[in-house]
């Protein structure tokens, strides 16, 4: 350990300490709108007065919330079943046992403890006793892009509170890549450890439920041990109730939620003096394979992987469904609400599983502990890594307010219509993109740029209306009629955007030119024909909003052969050269 200087007023030989149970270090937003920084003790004592945790990044908030959930699960040793959970929900002082728990384990929550520093490895060192820049744990300093950070260009020093937050974050989201080997780690080859993957949460499409207060948020995500979809082990415990980690890994698997929420994917040692932290030693810790962890990890949706099934010769194989930064949460609502039982997977398993934490809330709704008409905010958080996962390219942070009736197990009609409505928007925007491409073809111009711009404009125009429509579903007596209302709104909104594209096309587009499509058919393509094709595609995408059969099945919209204008009918429309493409359906 690097030599430290006593703080002012410290006695001779007195070691530095930063007790996370009593010293403020977690940022919070209070219900009155003010911000504060609290210790663990005060945070749990005031949880009903706080809106939510505030981090330096959304990913830091997610990592800190999981740490808080591990504390609650372990302090309460539960909840054991849904009845115990209901008692906690009704008890305003439900977190009282946490205070005694924090006192009992106080030494393990000391960031600077000489033997068991919080989530660190005492004595961790490289063969050359190197101490690295704090850039290695501070994720808001983009690698190679210092001008996009307020910390430009390096992090020279952190307060103990900041350092504690980044220690929690680095275990969850640290990048992969080649890392300097630690003395005593048998994985070291030539002074290095070769890539073992990102921190555990870095591979997840993080999802959790937000309540009106931090107390509600913690309880909504506090999954009971009698939940069928998750495996619970009596030996499950968080990192601070385990033996301190050495420099290597024993290759063990996670024992349950408390273990996963505090998984030690890295080995860390802070270097500090009386004024704060000035360096870090960072290496690989315990790697964890995400394959088929859906019975352990509740805070991500899952997807089946045909490639992994073929490779391993087993079925099904599920992997976390990561977030796509290009798609807002509302466009990926299917991953949040799709019921595994209706996915047609049968004995082979569904193609997707919604996050188990939302499956848990579905149970609370189904068994009457939450009102069918109440709203829940689904928060989605994740990262997109770049260059072999060695840098963080983007952070995903979004919220989607949903009526909890969407999660009801025995009444899937609302969820089906919510998903179908997002698909309505997707198809309509594709039609708009095809119009932009056709207008570009009519002038002999490049097509991809106008198509992408039309997609972006269409989704932007529909995002706020969809979110409002979704929230209003809580009071909708008929989900099918509610979707018909949405289809009419989409038709009007996207139709107006199409009108603007045609009006701005210019004389060259109205004059037109000869165009040969992918099937070898030749057309004289101009703005008038492109507009006619667009109206036909829009009719196919949304059906006739006035028809009682339009979109009522909850799947794709019913095609209407007489919903378009005079000209080619929807069944005769030629394919465009470049079909509108979307990223793979992520949250």
Automatic annotation (TrEMBL):
<dbReference type="InterPro" id="IPR013381">
    <property type="entry name" value="CRISPR-assoc_prot_Cse1"/>
</dbReference>
<protein>
    <submittedName>
        <fullName>CRISPR system Cascade subunit CasA</fullName>
    </submittedName>
</protein>
<feature type="region of interest" description="Disordered">
    <location>
        <begin position="542"/>
        <end position="587"/>
    </location>
</feature>
<feature type="region of interest" description="Disordered">
    <location>
        <begin position="234"/>
        <end position="253"/>
    </location>
</feature>
<feature type="compositionally biased region" description="Basic and acidic residues">
    <location>
        <begin position="575"/>
        <end position="587"/>
    </location>
</feature>
<dbReference type="Pfam" id="PF09481">
    <property type="entry name" value="CRISPR_Cse1"/>
</dbReference>
């Amino acid at each position: 350990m690097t030599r430290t200087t006593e703080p002012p007023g410290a006695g001779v030989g007195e070691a530095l300490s930063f007790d996370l149970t009593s010293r403020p270090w977690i940022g919070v937003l209070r219900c009155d709108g003010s911000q504060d920084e609290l210790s663990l003790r005060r945070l749990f004592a005031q949880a009903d007065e706080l809106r939510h945790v505030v981090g330096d990044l959304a990913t830091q908030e997610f990592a800190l919330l999981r740490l808080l959930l591990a504390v609650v699960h372990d302090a309460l040793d539960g909840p054991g079943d849904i009845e115990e959970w209901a008692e906690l929900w009704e008890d305003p002082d439900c977190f009282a046992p946490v205070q005694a728990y924090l006192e009992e384990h106080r030494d393990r929550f000391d960031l600077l403890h000489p033997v068991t520093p919080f989530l660190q490895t005492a004595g961790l060192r490289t063969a050359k006793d190197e101490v690295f820049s704090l850039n290695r744990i501070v994720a808001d300093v983009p690698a190679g892009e210092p001008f996009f950070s307020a910390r430009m260009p390096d992090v020279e020093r952190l307060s103990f509170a900041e350092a504690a937050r980044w220690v929690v974050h680095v275990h969850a989201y640290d990048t992969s890549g080649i890392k300097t080997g630690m003395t005593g780690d048998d994985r070291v080859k030539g002074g290095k450890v070769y890539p073992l993957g990102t921190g555990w949460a870095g591979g997840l499409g993080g999802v959790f439920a937000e309540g009106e207060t931090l107390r509600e948020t913690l309880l909504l995500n506090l999954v009971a041990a009698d939940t069928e979809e998750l495996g619970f082990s009596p030996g499950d415990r968080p990192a601070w109730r385990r033996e301190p980690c050495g420099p290597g890994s024993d290759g063990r698997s996670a024992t349950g939620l408390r273990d996963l929420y505090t998984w030690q994917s890295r080995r860390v040692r802070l270097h500090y003096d009386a004024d704060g932290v000035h360096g870090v030693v960072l290496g690989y810790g315990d790697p964890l394979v995400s394959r088929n962890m859906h019975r352990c990890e509740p805070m991500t949706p899952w997807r089946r992987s045909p490639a992994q099934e073929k490779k391993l010769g087993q079925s099904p194989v599920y992997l976390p469904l990561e977030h796509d930064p290009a798609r807002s949460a509302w466009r990926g609502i299917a991953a949040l609400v799709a019921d595994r039982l209706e996915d047609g997977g049968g004995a082979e398993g569904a193609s997707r599983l919604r996050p188990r934490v939302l499956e848990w809330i579905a149970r609370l709704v189904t068994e009457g502990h939450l009102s069918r008409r109440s709203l829940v905010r689904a928060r989605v958080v994740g990262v997109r890594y770049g260059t072999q996962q060695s840098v963080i390219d983007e952070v995903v942070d979004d919220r989607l307010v949903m009526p909890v009736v969407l999660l009801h197990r025995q009444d899937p009609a609302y969820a089906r219509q919510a998903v179908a409505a997002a698909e309505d928007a997707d198809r309509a925007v594709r039609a708009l993109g095809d119009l932009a491409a056709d207008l570009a073809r009519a002038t002999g111009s490049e097509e991809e740029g106008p198509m992408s711009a039309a997609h972006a404009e269409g989704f932007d125009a529909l995002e706020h209306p969809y979110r409002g429509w979704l929230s209003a579903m809580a009071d909708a007596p008929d989900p099918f009629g509610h979707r018909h209302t949405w289809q009419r709104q989409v038709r009007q909104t996207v139709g107006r955007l199409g009108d603007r594209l045609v009006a701005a096309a210019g004389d060259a587009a109205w004059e037109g030119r000869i165009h040969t499509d992918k099937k070898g058919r030749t057309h004289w393509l101009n703005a008038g024909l492109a507009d006619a094709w667009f109206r036909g595609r829009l009719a196919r995408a949304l059906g006739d909003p006035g028809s009682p059969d339009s979109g009522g099945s909850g799947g794709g919209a019913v095609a209407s052969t007489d919903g378009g204008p005079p000209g080619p009918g929807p069944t005769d429309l030629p394919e465009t050269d470049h079909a509108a493409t979307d990223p793979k359906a992520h949250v």
